[in-house]
Description:
The chain has 383 residues and is an alpha/beta fold. Helices cover 52% and strands 13% of the residues. The chain has an 8-stranded mixed beta sheet with strand order 1-2-4-3-5-6-7-8, sandwiched between helices. β7, α9 and β8 form a beta-alpha-beta unit. The longest helix is centred in the last third of the chain and has 18 residues, at 365-382. The protein is elongated and about 75 Å long.
Amino acid sequence: xxxxxxxxxxxxxxxxxxxxxxxxxxxxxxxxxxxxxxxxxxxxxxxxxxxxxxxxxxxxxxxxxxxxxxxxxxxxxxxxxxxxxxxxxxxxxxxxxxxxxxxxxxxxxxxxxxxxxxxxxxxxxxxxxxxxxxxxxxxxxxxxxxxxxxxxxxxxxxxxxxxxxxxxxxxxxxxxxxxxxxxxxxxxxxxxxxxxxxxxxxxxxxxxxxxxxxxxxxxxxxxxxxxxxxxxxxxxxxxxxxxxxxxxxxxxxxxxxxxxxxxxxxxxxxxxxxxxxxxxxxxxxxxxxxxxxxxxxxxxxxxxxxxxxxxxxxxxxxxxxxxxxxxxxxxxxxxxxxxxxxxxxxxxxxxxxxxxxxxxxxxxxxxxxxxxxxxxxxxxxxx
Length: 383
């Protein structure tokens, strides 16, 4: 995890990066009134496959708030500048509401930077403009806390306290962290933004997500985006309103992962390749026969696509556990590819030695002795 302060277009942005170095980049773009913590429930799953960038929009959370009004072009340029600052030449996008609109602007105006895109609970034109100019005037005069009640009515169904008991308090905290001038400037950007003419130019494979009970951007709005973007698909999250990722976090992240990474088997092959190395996986596939194919499919889909991608443990920890179990059970041949994998996942040779010593106490000296011999042989072959 990296916490950064990045200066782009004369504005200081609060930025956070999670996930393993070398993984594909994914940029998350927040809705109006929220900070990057709105994605906290999705991060454990997403970081199994991506290096995830999150940032607070102008006037939100820890980011600066220059005098408004702003434009969608400026907000899109902010996002590109953040990608540049962290060294992300290309990235996939996942944006909700305001973040979805910025994502569409990026895909239309910087297509060479975008791999794939998820746009959720959003629109290409948040009409009428008076709604946003009136809100801008309100927050400049009264601050943002007075919006809390109306936002809850539009953002969540009546079941939110059951599905996500902490969601309302999270919204209150994020809303209170907004700077009135910065918030108003973003509202004025939404008042003027109209991307409908640009949708046909979007070439990135796109998933459009809607909440079934979203009054702000209902499924009909999502359908219009689906119709206008050539390479797109549509998912409606049941029993969710505008902040579908908070109300139905599991359904939301499943849809995102299916689009960005693929099925569990596809995800498993990606993780298997990242952990074990492309040469090993290519060799395993080359040796596959009709007899062994079902087992190889099971390993890719379940072990790598479901278990190694679960939240709660990073790959380094999973490698330690795997090595300890293999040594304890005497499956030393498996060490030939899991020791290089452990090194790739961040374990040092010294830590592997300590792990084997620990196994000597709990799995027996003979098991550890054989493992040391095999591990030494493997490590020497890597020199």
